[in-house]
Amino acid sequence: MIERRRARTRAIVLVPVISRSRGAARAQGEEPRRPTVTHSPQDRLAEATGLAEAIDLDVAEAVIVPLVQPKPGTFFGSGKVDEVAERVKALEVELVIVDHAISPVQQRNLEKKLNAKVLDRTGLILEIFGRRARTREGRLQVELAHLGYQKSRLVRSWTHLERQRGGAGFLGGPGETQLELDRRMLQDRIDSLNEELEVVVRTRELHRTGRRKVPYPIVAIVGYTNAGKSTLFNRLTGAGVLAKDQVFATLDPTMREVRLPEGRRIILSDTVGFISDLPTMLVAAFRATLEEVIEANLILHVRDISHAESAAQRADVEQVLDGLGVATTGPDAHILEVWNKLDRLSPAAREEVEHQARRNENPPALVSAITGEGTAELLTLIEARVSAGDERIVLAVPASAGALMHWLHANAEIVEQRSDEDGLTHFVIRIEQGKRGRLEGQLKRAGLGMPRA
Questions:
Q1: Does residue 413 contact residue 390 with C-beta atoms inside 8 Å?
Q2: What is the pLDDT of residues 138-174, one digit of tens each?
């Protein structure tokens, strides 16, 4: 039997650019956001198109739509709605993506007038997350986030992309029958998911507690989606994490042990990519995953320095980190910026980037995760940052204290080791301040005192 290839859903992408003044926003009681670097309309258009293509949609047209102020009923003005309706009919489009948050009323009114399914930015990102999640935790988090989104939009006529089956998202497979359930049953499912996630979170906390007992420093990689985080993770660890040139290629956290140049061991964590206007419900749903970032000893903020919107992407990432309670500025900030994709820069652009790096108050690491350039220097910088509070201690250990020697090799950096004729092994070690108490206990059990640093 010959399997028929399923046709891709045709879509139009609309990117609203709202030119309303801050004064008008305040007049409507909206809280002004903190000053930030904004993305250009062209970059937003390219990103929205990339998001649509990430779930295999056939983008027939993508346009920027200037807008003074959203209309309560249909978001766009009547003239623009009529124009889009004509394009939907002419291009035989089934799905219209609005790269902005729209209300359930606006969504339903647009669907009636356009005679096509309408999906806003939050819904589109949820679709992608549904496709990308691989672990049980990831699937639970995505479904929970989707059900929270769906709860306010539950209508019995919602049949979005019913031909597309399978996958971990809400296009098909797990959760698709939820569309026809009433609010009570929907809430029952949300409660059930929360209970399942509590078990997963407890398990993750047990693993985290186990790592604290080692404990190796945690170094978490964060950054805008498609900045090259997973490629860098693979380069530093030799792991085979999925690394594709597409948005949200990584959703489920991956952790690997890495030995630094002078022997120090760390746990490197790859995390979900951030994006502008990341839906709040997704940040909340993935908070258990992002706990690795919150508790990290050092955060590597990977930036695609070749991207025209690199500064705006940086602002978006820092906004999410701020929301997680992670300090991005000041003495409490423990972030090392990694300017990635040097290989994509022209000689002139590279010279300018290097000049910017030298002028930076906190100099970044300049790397190419693809070629490996700069990664050795990056590891040295990581070691300097995670070892900043270490103590240097000299020990003389008798041959009978085998357990102490084993502990030293497992928990401290051995800077120097030599044996003498009296059977003593002389160590010069570097150890974290947090392990000093445990070292004192090991020395006491071996009948030794704590020497001076």
A1: yes
A2: 778 778 888 888 776 765 444 444 433 333 443 444 4
